[in-house]
Protein 1
Amino acid sequence: MSTALAQGEIGELAQIVGSEWVLDQREQLLPYAVSLDPAGDCFPATVLRPGSREEVQRIVEVANRRGLSLHPISRGMQHGLGMATAVAPDTVTIELSRMDRILEYDDELGYVVLEPGVTFAQLHRFLEEHGGRYWCSPISGPVEASVLGNALDKGAGYTPVGNHFGNLIGLEVVIGDGRVLTTGDGALPGAKTTYTHKGGCGPMLDALFAQSNYGIVTKAGVWLMPAPPGARGFVFSVPDYDDLGRAVDVAGRLKLTGGIPSTISIANDVFCLAVEAAEPRPMAEPGAAPIDEGELPALREAHGIGAWNVVGCIYGPSETLEARVEKLEQAFAATGPLAYLPEEEARERKAFGYRFDIAKGVPNETELDVYNLHPNGTSLYFLPSVPFRGAEALEAMRLSRLICTEHGFAYTNQFLCSPRSMRNTQPVIFDGGADGAAQRARDCFSELTSRFADSGYLVSRPPTHFQQEVMDGLGLHAELARSVKRAFDPNGVLDPGRFGLSLEDR
Ligand SMILES: Cc1cc2nc3c(=O)[nH]c(=O)nc-3n(C[C@H](O)[C@H](O)[C@H](O)COP(=O)(O)OP(=O)(O)OC[C@H]3O[C@@H](n4cnc5c(N)ncnc54)[C@H](O)[C@@H]3O)c2cc1C
């Protein structure tokens, strides 16, 4: 596969997209090169910004003929997960942000058809401009991230429809040999149910395009959430780390039985304190955690937060909401000490207010301030899932805390909870400018990954440079995924090595 591109290759690619949409100067490539890997930046050979599916197809055709490696991204805002970089340097990055049209909006059946460049902020604006009948499901990360890119990487949001890949339907995909597939019912020429009925006929191929490198998605349907008549948020805080078990047991039952329809977030004190900080905390000694655990009780008191903070939202007629939140409060309080913050008060706190926006379909990126834990803060996000039960939540907390402490990092975590499992969402935050910090973060992350795997917990969304390591533990699953690669991408031009998938036998 390619190293630096020959002039003839660049010329041919420039003819497809237009020379103004080819980036090949070092300063232009830098934003696409920033890597969390201690090995340093990972520069692409060039970046192409195509404007249509036809251009994407022509690029794929050239890549097959000339043996180039292509790395598709929608907006490249994979904060904490590898940003815009490919597994290896010298790829041709295909950046799809110019393809940012909302192609269809069905206001009866509640779906849109989007190109990959459409952002959360853009979709929210569009829905507001069209009467606000539907909500999108935002993330707590960058508002200019891509709705499709996030879903294709199995991203999650905070509304009741927070499983983002689950909201996709009728994917249009340029596969590795340049042909175009529409998944599901859309495989039938002229199908009228491409965006309304899931499943199609025979095997469901949609799922193959989540976290893979079999194709470049050029449009897809996204199901929306009908805007409810009212919504009300809440925060329930418990005083000690070991109260996590009882809080999770109550929250789990309420989530499964529909008492709390939003994604529930259970954030620890350090996570909230980091977001609250108006500016980066002063640097502790190299190798020491930025907040000493002994300081935490006083900081919790000063900021009015608990050791764990359960944040969620309920929906329905406005006049019913307060009474329903009171019932939730009773359920949590029955298990031990609890502080309840009604939405109006919680909105005053920086660590909580933004969460109500995103649970109500309004993008808000305040959470990026979690990086204020350090000067030049950046992170590797550790995202294993555990069953939604107190005992396993406590096990995950104790293991993570121990490993973070041993490696000199603050235990910074929030559990994002769906009905049966909780995604441990734990940024290992480090000072990106400090010597050796990236290597220490990597070591910590590796140990977290392997010790969690030993305990039966899989990291389902690893950063780019850990994907191979995680897939290597998955036996036949990984082997078959590599075999499938050949059917979609016989010359292996798409993102070689992503999730450990390439044509070379391992
Ligand atoms: C503080 C903070 C909060 C965050 N909160 C959340 C959150 O709530 N939920 C969440 O899910 N994430 C969250 N993130 C992580 C991340 O920022 C988001 O997931 C973001 O949406 C990813 O960037 P993107 O949408 O631009 O996707 P991209 O970077 O464009 O895409 C992600 C990956 O998918 C693949 N891909 C993208 N587009 C295509 C395509 N068209 N065809 C084929 N493959 C493609 C590529 O391999 C790419 O690397 C958070 C990060 C931080 C730092």
Note: The chain is about 30% helix and 20% strand.
Protein 2
Amino acid sequence: MRKVYLDNAATTFVSSEVMAEMLPCFNTIYGNANSLHSYGREASAIVDRARDRIAHAIHAKKSNEIYFTSGGTEADNWAIKGIAHAYASKGKHIITSSIEHHAVLDACKQLEKEGYEVTYLPVDKHGLVNVADVLHAIKKTTTLISIMAVNNEVGTIQNLKAIAKTAHDYGIIFHTDAVQAIGAVKIDVQDMEIDAMSMSAHKIYGPKGVGALYLRNGVQIENLIAGGSQERAKRGGTINVPAVAGFGKAVEIAVRDLSINQQKLRAIREYFIGKIEEKIPYIQVNGHPHQKVPSILNVSFEMAEGESILMLLDLEGIAVSTASACTSNVLEPSHVLRAMSIPDEIAQGAIRFSFGKNTSKSDIDYVVEVLAKVVAKLRSISPLTKAGRR
Ligand SMILES: Cc1ncc(COP(=O)(O)O)c(C=O)c1O
């Protein structure tokens, strides 16, 4: 059976250049990066190189502003709770958006239980946070603003620089979840005035289980893991050298190939939109019309249910994702689409297609051919169709 993977925003394959960087770290340069002998020093040099590569790619001032973590979720949790705790004596109010990844939202929920106040800003129908809303939400007690760079469900790119500037006008720390932004848009932490930023390797052809938090020198954060001097004693534990080596290489490549990948992915996305518009009626593209990354395309198929589309596509070897979560047998539409005021019945038919650097036009032809059949079949048995909604 033909297989097509259109779920690159969930994770990607590991590129051969990244694998080549990682392989020697398993059985040749296998020392503990903390050991004092030559094996340790060799491993430590690899970790330093990865840190330098990442710092350089995001234009951090110093490599010691990069702290390795187990991924984006850990970096988000650490940034939100660690910064909030470190500045608790100054105030206990945090501003974020209603479309953040759950790593940010759930960390904020935990802080609320500890007595913090959190403002969840609304977004417009395209998924954009209004900079004026950020300004109006600021209080004397606000210590942290966290707004994601690129949304993982619809691909909308936020006006980060303006939001960061607003935060700094009031002496507030600005954090961004850039897990979907690295390799998709240009990130310059100094120019964009970012104080803290979460990153992950496995969305950019790197290994799973590794990421980083960029933390501008001078920004306070509570230590995350006690028990070791690693990561300047903020996150103890033996460093996963192969993963870190792969992550460093993956970030370097992602930034090196940014514009060529953007061009390629934009062409693929436009080809896909053209084809589905030609073959499938009653669809709606969700997200910003222009201010969005080319790799993510969220489409609602009216009178068809997202999970059913996903499963029928999977039977034909095609991998996509829905954003909705099935809780207690009730299909909850995605919190992102809801925040964008998309009616539940449209949100429930939403599918996220996320393209990768190996997606071809012939993959798209195959997907659209199968998708047209799947959607037609589901619509033929949908109660909405029977009720004469269309
Ligand atoms: C925007 C965003 N933030 C955070 C994460 C979590 O990253 P990780 O899988 O590395 O924990 C993801 C992963 O889907 C994401 O898309």
Note: The chain has two domains: 4-11+258-382, 16-256.
Protein 3
Amino acid sequence: MGERTVVILIDALGCELVDHHGFSPGSLPFRTRLKTVLGFSQAALTSILTGSAPDVHGLWMMFSFVGGGSPFGLLRGLRLFGGPDRLWVRNLLRWKLSRIDRVTAYFSLYDIPREVLERLDLPARKSVFGPLGGGNRRSILDQAYDEGGVFIRDYDTPEEQAFDELESALETGESSFHLVYTAGLDSDLHRYGSREEAIGSRLRLYRERIDSLVSRFPDPRFIVLGDHGMCDVTGHIDLIKSVEATGLKIPGDYVPFYDSTMARFRVSGERASRAISEILERSPGGKLLGTEELNSLGVHFPRGEYGDIVFLCDPGTIILPSYMGSAPVKGMHGYHPGASCMDSVMFSSEEFQGDEAPVTGIARFLLPGFRGGGRKE
Ligand SMILES: [Zn+2]
């Protein structure tokens, strides 16, 4: 067996909150600042595991707009929820249920106007941690599965149990690639914000588990990282009310999707496009993203599957109410990756070249020899 690798992926392990709470696994000497991608965890995790940007792997946001006006997207999937052929819907809803922001997403699905719901789809139909989970691209997990001996624990396993099982797996030595993903910190941060002691105590638990693993098993390469940071929420805007005041009709003129920090619109015709753009340009607390900016952020989809118009909130501002729920949260992510609170961090037993890296640039560090490429290559 070749070199063994252990990756511990802590959702929302932000650089700033790590500094604030003094989280630093003493056993891992190297530290790299990570710049995330625009989007939520699905976008960031897929970018980490495939080494490519969302407009390359294709899985930018949880919900996309159905093309061609055919109302057979999400709604049909939900109607057949429970049917054996709709396993992907169940897997996705479980993924959402495992996280605070996605818990509210699950329940508020039923608050999304029916005429919007009918025009939405779920582009990610597989777990990002399973085979073929990387959208259009091969992920490091595809390659690790091919090479054999993979140990993965994700949101299906309680965190303490996942660490216990990781320890047993390292003892028996059956696997060469190990990945443990934890969502508890992310959900605490949504609930408490970044400065509460609850965050510090959870980080201490992680540090103890990591340090004890590294001291017990000195041989494997250890990498601990996050997918994005977390910004404390300072205000909210009622975007739905402003857009609805235009008198434009859903779905004839436009189909919206109001996420917690982003609003995306599929529009029909110049009149609707101009009216919505004007409202958004005047709205405080955020800005429209132009084609050039979407391009440079690696989230430009020219066919409009994620919307023709994209509005992004300023760090700390949330859209309320949104399709993600009407309860305010204390922490949120999904802001411009240039905001320092969005930065994540990576600790490692081996040195990574450079103090800073994009999350799209570490796949080969996580799995040495990772070849990447398209799914069909
Ligand atoms: Zn989150």
Note: The domain at 5-55+128-231+337-366 is CATH 3.40.720.10 (Alkaline Phosphatase, subunit A).
Protein 4
Amino acid sequence: MDRGHTGLLPRTPRLEDESYLAFMESYRNHAIRGMFPHIAQLAGAAEASGGSADEQAYVRTWKRMMRSQQQLTWQKLQDSFHADAAHYEAELKAAEVARPGRLHYDPAFVTPKYASLDIHLQPGGYVGDPLAGYVFHHGTKVFYQGENDQDQLHQQVVDFVRAPEDGKVQRVLDLGCSIGQCTTALKQRFPDAEVTGLDVGLPMVRYAHKRAVDLGIDVHFRQGLAEDTQLPSGQYDVILAYILFHEVPERLFRTIIGEVHRLLRPGGTFTVVDAPNDTALGAGNRLWLKFDARYNCEPYSPAFVASDLAGMLEAAGLRVASRGPTPTFLSCTTAVKDARGG
Ligand SMILES: C[S@@+](CC[C@H](N)C(=O)[O-])C[C@H]1O[C@@H](n2cnc3c(N)ncnc32)[C@H](O)[C@@H]1O
């Protein structure tokens, strides 16, 4: 069961899981690197002649492969971790009181319905499976095709975080932190700050806390809502939302941004790394986005891609300081709360 770690990545319960996941990783790699360039060509050609490539045989095969890859990966991981569920539950329970960081959750917390979907087809999503953190960690290893085994991509995201101009960073908040890979990287970037990760999923923050304890990194985790964090006003110097927005309903975009404005001190910064706005997307990526929304349980994402993030930030009193692509497909927007606190 406890088969140790490879660097930051814990090993799976059984050796056979690793070979299964390695196969899944190359299967996904083939679908994305091998097949997708052709899909993009088909989508572009179809659009240019006023049609759609959606129903073409090659595209349908690709969609089936992408969906099956997700389903098979989650299924394998869930079966494997749940075969020893008592062991993993005990591990999470023991970590709850372990230090350096603290874990905060309220047993009376009510998860909103919108956050209870099987996002990315993970059964139970972020909230419904007590072992979802373990499953997510290994499932996203496959998702990132082995390029994030040592949190490299999370570190890259954290490098994009805008620091306040006066250089003062006492409190940092990672909104929608999942299993805390940016949260721990934020602590490494701002070692003197108090760093907190917040997520609606209790299984996520329980695993995030256990993981940070194992790594000996002093960060805190809370179950909570980005739109109503229950955290104090004007206390945060730096806030990050990495791929949170495209997973919340459109009606919450402005509420979350308003909450960020409330939490930031004057001069504090907000960094959003997420899907690019649709004007930056080619025909192939638009096809992928539609596939994700419909077949990969990402129902909120198209509304975010179509939204005016910069306009919403400015309307809330957050001055947009920079916008641009990241080395991955995502886009990074940074904003600053007016130094007069407006
Ligand atoms: C794609 S994951 C984010 C990944 C994460 N930031 C990372 O570093 O890998 C989206 C996360 O947002 C969380 N989430 C969704 N809606 C939320 C909300 N309203 N408030 C807080 N967290 C939310 C989900 O539980 C999930 O863990």
Note: The mean pLDDT is 96.
